[in-house]
Design goal:
By secondary structure, this protein is of the alpha/beta class. Helix content is 32%, strand content 20%. Among the domains are: 77 residues; 207 residues, 3-Layer(aba) Sandwich (Rossmann fold); 231 residues, Domain of unknown function DUF4159 (Rossmann fold, 3-Layer(aba) Sandwich), CATH 3.40.50.12140. Pfam families: BatA, DUF4159.
C-alpha cells in the first residue's frame, strides 16, 4: 500500500501504466501512408470547385489530450485510491468491534458509522477478519463474524441505533461465543469499543471481557452533547419537564415542542442549561383542553429516543367538578373538597358550579361529598352524564348515612345498610381497622396495600353477592371501604368514609392520591381501561426507533400489559404507543428516575472518533472517465461530419419507445359491454331485480328505440340493462330508472357513478309509476324509495316542468310529457339554477310517476302490453312523442331551445325583422 499524505493506493503498482501514456500519444497521432500521386486531366476541373466542408488529415492535439486523460483516469482508478485511509495496523490479527447501538448513541451516530467504515477499510486492505458485537441487541444474538472487510462495510452501513439502553452484562456473556473463531483466526486481536458514553450496569464486566481477548481501545464522543428529557414528577405538575445533559459544559439553549397525535404543534417553550449546569426544569404552558391533546413532548433538533417523552392517557389532566355550596357550612380548610382538590391538584383542573353547569361544561369527574338526597331531576341528569363517560366519585358521611336509613338512594354502586348505629348505620370500632387490600377486578388492582391507613368509622354496605362483586377496596375484616361499578362508558365510586381525616387516615395518605387519580383515569380511557386492569395485552400502534422517529411496529411484535408498560422500554417492548388509538398507553425509552452519568473506565485506552471517514475515489474517477468517453465519441462524430446523422438516429430511437407505449396503454382493458355500447347507440335502464319491472322497462325502451329509428335520424340498437354499482354509465346518454317499492339506495360507489353520469351530460328518468295512485298528502312506497335515493344524491334545485321547457319542443311541440297517466307534475332542474351551470343548462334529471315504459311497451307483434289510464291510443301516441323529445334532449341538448330564441336574439342584434 502506497501512502501520499491523506491519499493512499491499495494497488500502487498499477500506476506504472502511466509511463506508457507518451507511447499512447504517438500511436494515436500516427497517420496511414500517404497515397500515390497520379495526374488525371479531370482533376483540373475539380480544383476550381470550392469545398464547403473540409476534413482534417490528422487528429487534433486537444482530442489526443482528451483521450490521454481518459486513459489516465482509468489507470488511477484501478490503482484503488483512498482518501483519509486509516494507518495500517501493526498486527494482522482479527478486528473486533463492540458497538453501543443505543438511543444514547443516536445523536452522534454518524461518527460511529465513520469509525466502522474506517475499520472495515483497514481490514479490507490488510486481509484481517472482522467481528461485530452489539450491546443493545434485543434478540440476544451471538456476535457476527468472521467476515471480510468488504462484507463488514456493507453490514456496518445498515446498522442503526435501537431505542433501548445497553445490556453490557448480556453482551459480555455473549462474547464467549467468539472464542473458537478468534482462536482459528490466529494473531493478537484488536478490539474497539464504540461506546455511547453513558454509564450503566455491566460496564466493568464488558470491559474486562473485551480486554481479556485483545488490545482494547474505547472510543468516546466528546463533541456531540447528550441531552435527554424526563417528566418532572417532583415539580408537582405533568406539564413540567426536566432537561438533562450527560456532562456539564458551556451554556446550552434549545426548545421543547409539544405535539398532538396528528402532528400539530401545540406549544413551544425555550429551554436553557446554564454553563456548568446539567439539569433545567421547563414548563410547557397550555390550557387544559390542549394539554389533554398532547401526544409527545420532544427537544427540538435532538435525534434520540431519549429526547422525546410520549404522553400517556393516564397523564392527561382531567377536569374535576365540585358542586357549588356543598361545603358552605364547613371551614374551607377542613372541607372534604379541599382534601380532594389537594390530592388531584397535580393531575387535574377544577371547576366549581351548580350541578347542571358542571354537566354542561362536560367535566370528566364530579365529586359529591356527603350528599344524602338528590332531587329526581339532578339524579336523572347525573345518570345520563355517567352513561356518556363521566365518573361520579361520592364520599360517605353523616348526611348519606342518615338518608340511607329511610330509602334506597340512587347513583350508588351498592345499597347501604340502614339501622340505629351511630350516624345512621355507621360502624364504629374500638380498634381501628387497616386497609387490607384491593380487588383484582377494580381500578386499584396494581396498587400495594398501604400500612399507614386505618379506618375508625364507616358507612356499611348491605352484604350480598352484588356488594362483594363491586368492592374495590376492603378492610381487614372484609367490609368494603370503596365500592364501584361501571355504567355505560362511565363509572360510579363510593368511599364509605368522608374525604376528611375524622373517620379514617385515608385522606392523609399517598394512597388517597393514587386512588383518586386512578378513578379519574376511568373517565379518560373508557371501556379499554377494564381490559388493561384485567391484565390484557395491548397491541402496539406506533413505536419509536433509536433516533426518536415514529414507525409502524413489526408484525410479530407482541403487545404489553399495563404493568409492563409502566416498567418502561425493554428489548421486547420498544417505546411507543400501545392499546386503544383514542387513548393509548405510552412506553418511553427513558423513565422519570435513574442517574445519567458518563462512562468511566480505569486502565483502558480511550480515543476520540475520527473526523473524516475514508473515501474510495475509484468510483468517481471511473464515472468521470465514462463521461469524457462519451464526449470523445461526440467529438469524433463532429470531426467526421456525422454528428447530424447521429442526432437524427438518437431522436428516432428516443421516439420509438414512446410510440410503443402509446400502442400499449397502461389502463386496464375496457369492459366489452361498455365498448359495444360506445360503438352502437343504445338506451339503457337500471335493473331493479324485479323480473316484471325489468321486463317492462326492456320492452318499453325497445319500442321507443324502434320509433326513434322510424321517425328520427337516430338508429338505436336494442336497449340494455345496467347496474350503477359496476357498469360504466358514461356510454349511455339516457338512463331510465323505474323505482320499485322498498328499493335500497345504492352504495357510495354507485352514488358516485350516478353523480358523475349526470355531471357530464347524462340524463336520468326517475319513474315511480304511481301517478294514478298518488294522492296529495300521502306518500306511496315507490316515492318513499325514491326519496331515500335522492336524499343521498347531489342534485340541483328542482322545479315543476314549465310549459316552454325544451323537453316540450325538442322534436315535437307538446304541452306536457305524456305517459300512461299524467295526474301529477314532472320535476326537472329549476331554470334559475341552470344558468351558467355545466351541460349548458340542460337538465340532468326528469322525475315523474307517469309509467312511461308502460305506455311504450309492446310485444313482438307490436301490440301494447298495458292499457292507457286515460286518453286511449291518442294518448299513447303522445307518450311516444314525449319519449322521443326526452331522447332528443339526451342526445342533442338544448339546440332546439337555441333555435326557438334565435329570432329574439337576432332582433336584439338589429338583424331581425322590424
Amino acid at each position: 500500500m502506497l501512502s501520499l499524505g491523506a491519499l493512499s493506493f491499495s494497488a500502487p503498482w498499477i500506476l506504472l501504466a502511466l509511463a506508457g501514456l507518451p507511447a499512447l500519444w504517438l500511436v494515436l497521432r500516427a497517420t496511414p501512408p500517404a497515397p500515390k500521386r497520379v495526374r488525371f486531366p479531370a482533376f483540373i476541373i475539380l480544383r476550381r470547385l470550392t469545398t464547403k466542408e473540409e476534413t482534417p488529415d490528422r487528429t487534433p492535439w486537444w482530442v489526443l489530450l482528451l483521450r490521454l486523460v481518459i486513459a489516465g483516469l482509468v489507470i488511477v482508478g484501478l490503482a484503488g485510491p483512498v482518501l483519509n485511509a486509516p494507518t495500517p495496523a501493526q498486527t494482522t490479527g482479527p478486528l473486533v468491534f463492540a458497538v453501543d447501538d443505543t438511543w444514547a448513541a443516536a445523536g452522534g451516530w454518524r461518527l460511529r458509522l465513520d469509525a466502522l467504515a474506517a475499520g472495515a477499510e483497514e481490514a479490507a486492505q490488510a486481509g484481517r477478519p472482522v467481528f461485530l458485537l452489539t450491546t443493545a441487541d434485543p434478540a440476544g444474538d451471538p456476535p457476527q463474524g468472521p467476515m471480510t472487510g468488504e462484507a463488514a462495510r456493507e453490514l456496518f452501513a445498515a446498522l442503526a441505533p435501537k431505542p433501548f439502553a445497553a445490556d453490557r452484562a448480556g453482551a459480555a456473556a455473549r462474547l464467549s461465543r467468539l472464542d473458537p473463531a478468534l482462536a482459528r483466526a490466529g494473531g493478537a486481536a484488536e478490539i474497539r469499543w464504540l461506546s455511547d458514553g453513558l454509564a450503566g450496569e455491566g460496564d466493568d464486566a464488558l470491559a474486562e471481557a473485551l480486554a481479556a481477548r485483545g488490545a482494547l481501545t474505547v472510543y468516546a464522543d466528546r463533541e456531540t452533547p447528550l441531552v435527554v428529557l424526563r417528566p418532572d414528577r417532583q415539580a408537582g405538575a405533568p406539564a413540567r419537564w426536566r432537561v438533562e445533559r450527560l456532562r456539564g459544559g458551556p451554556e446550552w439553549r434549545g426548545a421543547l415542542v409539544a405535539a398532538a397525535r396528528d402532528g400539530r404543534e401545540l406549544a413551544r417553550a425555550p429551554a436553557v442549561l446554564p454553563a456548568g449546569e446539567r439539569t433545567a426544569r421547563v414548563a410547557v404552558d397550555l390550557p387544559l383542553a390542549l394539554r389533554n391533546e398532547v401526544a409527545a413532548v420532544a427537544i427540538e433538533g435532538a435525534r434520540s429516543a431519549g429526547a422525546i417523552q410520549l404522553a400517556d392517557a393516564r397523564d392527561r389532566r382531567a377536569l374535576v367538578g365540585f358542586v357549588a355550596g356543598e361545603d358552605a357550612q364547613q371551614d374551607p380548610l377542613l372541607s372534604g373538597t379541599r382534601y380532594v382538590r389537594k390530592a388531584l391538584e397535580p393531575y387535574a383542573g377544577f371547576l366549581t358550579d351548580a350541578l347542571d353547569g358542571l354537566i354542561r361544561a362536560d367535566v370528566s369527574v364530579i365529586v359529591l361529598h356527603d350528599v344524602g338526597r338528590l332531587r329526581a331531576s339532578d339524579a336523572e341528569a347525573l345518570a345520563a352524564w355517567v352513561e356518556r363517560g363521566g365518573v361520579l366519585i361520592r364520599f360517605a358521611g353523616p348526611s348519606l348515612a342518615d338518608a340511607a336509613q329511610d330509602e334506597d338512594l340512587p347513583l350508588l354502586p351498592a345499597p347501604l345498610r340502614g339501622g340505629g348505629r351511630a350516624f345512621g348505620g355507621a360502624l364504629t370500632w374500638e380498634t381501628p381497622q387497616a386497609l387490607a387490600g384491593f380487588s383484582k377486578n377494580g381500578p386499584f388492582a396494581d396498587m400495594p396495600p398501604p400500612d399507614d391507613v386505618f379506618v375508625r368509622r364507616q358507612v356499611l354496605a348491605e352484604p350480598g353477592g352484588e356488594t362483594s362483586a363491586r368492592t374495590w377496596a376492603f378492610l381487614a375484616d372484609g367490609t368494603p371501604l370503596v365500592t364501584g361499578a361501571r355504567r355505560g362508558d362511565g363509572a360510579i365510586a363510593l368511599f364509605h368514609v368522608p374525604a376528611t381525616p375524622g373517620w379514617s387516615d385515608l385522606p392523609l395518605s399517598a394512597t388517597f392520591v393514587d386512588m383518586l387519580r386512578k378513578l379519574t383515569f376511568l373517565s379518560l380511557l373508557g371501556p379499554s381501561r377494564e381490559e388493561a386492569d384485567a391484565g390484557a395485552r395491548l397491541s402496539p400502534l406506533r413505536v419509536l426507533d433509536g433516533f426518536g422517529r415514529f414507525r409502524d411496529p413489526d408484525p410479530d411484535l407482541a403487545g404489553v400489559t399495563a404493568a409492563e408498560a409502566a416498567a418502561g422500554a425493554a428489548p421486547d417492548r420498544p417505546p411507543g404507543f400501545y392499546g386503544a388509538p383514542e387513548a393509548p398507553i405510552a412506553v418511553n425509552a427513558l423513565g422519570p428516575d435513574g442517574a445519567l452519568e458518563p462512562l468511566a473506565l480505569s486502565g483502558v485506552a480511550e480515543t476520540a472518533y475520527a473526523q473524516e471517514p475514508p473515501a474510495r475515489l475509484a468510483p468517481p474517477l471511473f464515472a468521470a472517465a465514462l463521461a469524457l468517453l462519451l464526449l470523445d465519441a461526440l467529438v469524433a462524430l463532429a470531426l467526421a461530419g456525422r454528428l447530424r446523422l447521429a442526432a437524427l438516429a438518437l431522436l428516432a430511437a428516443a421516439s420509438a419507445p414512446a410510440s410503443d407505449l402509446r400502442a400499449q396503454p397502461l389502463d386496464a382493458a375496457l369492459d366489452p359491454k361498455a365498448v359495444e355500447a360506445a360503438l352502437q347507440t343504445r338506451l339503457a335502464y337500471v335493473r331493479t331485480g324485479d323480473p316484471e319491472i325489468d321486463r317492462l322497462s326492456e320492452l318499453g325502451l325497445a319500442a321507443l328505440s324502434r320509433e326513434l329509428y322510424r321517425r328520427t335520424a337516430l338508429e338505436p340498437a336494442p336497449p340494455v340493462a345496467v347496474d350503477p354499482e359496476t357498469d360504466d354509465l358514461s356510454v349511455y346518454p339516457l338512463l331510465y330508472w323505474p323505482i320499485a317499492a322498498g328499493a335500497r339506495p345504492p352504495s357510495e360507489q354507485g352514488l358516485a357513478n350516478i353523480e358523475n353520469f349526470m355531471r357530464f351530460g347524462g340524463l336520468i328518468i326517475f319513474d315511480t309509476r304511481d301517478d294514478e295512485r298518488a294522492v296529495a298528502g300521502l306518500e306511496t312506497p315507490e316515492r318513499a324509495a325514491l326519496r331515500a335515493i335522492l336524499a343521498q344524491l347531489d342534485l340541483p334545485p328542482l322545479a315543476a316542468l314549465p310549459d316552454d321547457h325544451v323537453l316540450t319542443r325538442s322534436f315535437y311541440l307538446l304541452d306536457r310529457l305524456y305517459g300512461r297517466m299524467w295526474n301529477n307534475p314532472v320535476w326537472v332542474q329549476a331554470p334559475a339554477s341552470a344558468a351558467g351551470e355545466a351541460n349548458d343548462g340542460v337538465t340532468p334529471v326528469i322525475i315523474g310517476g307517469r309509467d312511461w315504459a308502460g305506455a311504450w311497451a309492446t310485444d313482438r307483434f307490436g301490440r301494447p302490453l298495458r292499457p292507457m289510464a286515460r286518453g286511449g291510443e291518442r294518448a299513447r301516441e303522445l307518450a311516444y312523442r314525449a319519449g322521443i323529445n326526452m331522447a332528443m334532449v339526451a342526445y342533442t341538448g338544448n339546440y332546439k331551445s337555441d333555435q326557438v330564441h334565435a329570432p329574439i336574439l337576432l332582433e336584439r342584434l338589429g338583424r331581425g325583422r322590424p
